[in-house]
Automatic annotation (TrEMBL):
Pfam families according to UniProt: Sigma70_r2 (PF04542), Sigma70_r4_2 (PF08281)
Keywords: Sigma factor, Transcription, Transcription regulation
Top-level taxon of the source organism: Bacteria
NCBIfam families: Sig70_bacteroi1 (TIGR02985), sigma70-ECF (TIGR02937)
GO molecular function: DNA binding; sigma factor activity
Domain RNA polymerase sigma factor 70 region 4 type: from-to ranges: 124-175
Protein name as annotated: RNA polymerase sigma-70 factor
PANTHER family in the record: RNA POLYMERASE ECF-TYPE SIGMA FACTO, RNA POLYMERASE SIGMA-70 FACTOR ECF SUBFAMILY
Any single biological process term in GO: DNA-templated transcription initiation
InterPro entries: RNA_pol_sigma-70-like, RNA_pol_sigma-70_dom, RNA_pol_sigma70_bacteroid, RNA_pol_sigma70_r2, RNA_pol_sigma70_r4_t2, RNA_pol_sigma_r2, RNA_pol_sigma_r3/r4-like, WH-like_DNA-bd_sf
Domain RNA polymerase sigma-70 region per the UniProt entry, residue ranges: 25-90
Family (UniProt): Belongs to the sigma-70 factor family. ECF subfamily.
Organism: Mucilaginibacter limnophilus
Keyword Transcription: yes
């Protein structure tokens, strides 16, 4: 019934509480979202659970979620959920090393990622990122690790581009301060 419908049409039907429209979106994106999560977390069962939860949250919040591009929304949600999963599970060292290589490839500006190089330094920067306020940490990871631009972050989080810029500036400033003055962690 909905196979020929566009994503935008399906979203409209979902807002009208049509579960069949959600089922069609699920069939369109579930497999590739699971594959994306599996790349990050290397656990197929956990990836499937993460993706299922994304669809459940989307359904539960269908009246309040404002989505311009559902594909972008799902892929960004999957990446962020996988990163959150990793953070909660404290990923194995080999995964952190893989992630370190990705971060070095994406770091184009003079950021703490360039200032600190190598495996030990990267572990240190991860622990410093964990000390940032949650909103700053999320924006920094989306920008530097997920390589998202300010407009994508703004749309995904529902905040202004200016707020994204401010939070990004503050997070980098705080990281630089912590790198230069490690004793600030204890104060």
């Amino acid at each position: 019934m909905f196979r020929d419908s566009t994503d935008e049409e399906l979203i409209s039907y979902i807002r009208q509480s049509n579960q069949f429209a959600l089922e069609e979106l699920f069939h369109r994106y579930y497999k590739c979202l699971c594959q994306l999560c599996s790349v990050y977390i290397k656990d197929d069962a956990a990836a499937e659970e993460i993706v299922s939860n994304i669809f459940i949250r989307f359904w539960e919040n269908r009246d309040v979620v404002t989505v311009i591009n559902i594909k972008s929304y799902f892929f960004s949600s999957a990446k962020n959920a996988a990163l959150n999963y990793i953070q909660k599970k404290k990923a194995p060292l080999d995964y952190i090393e893989d992630y370190s290589a990705q971060a070095e490839e994406h770091a184009e500006h003079n950021t703490p990622f360039k200032i600190l190089s190598g495996r030990e330094s990267y572990k240190k920067i991860l622990s410093l990122i964990d000390t940032l306020p949650p909103a700053q940490r999320q924006v920094l990871l989306m920008s530097r690790i997920d390589n998202m631009d300010k407009h994508e972050i703004s749309n995904l989080l529902g905040i202004t581009v200016r707020t994204v810029e401010t939070m990004l500036y503050q997070s980098i400033k705080n990281l630089r301060r912590l790198i230069n003055n490690p004793h600030d962690l204890t104060t």
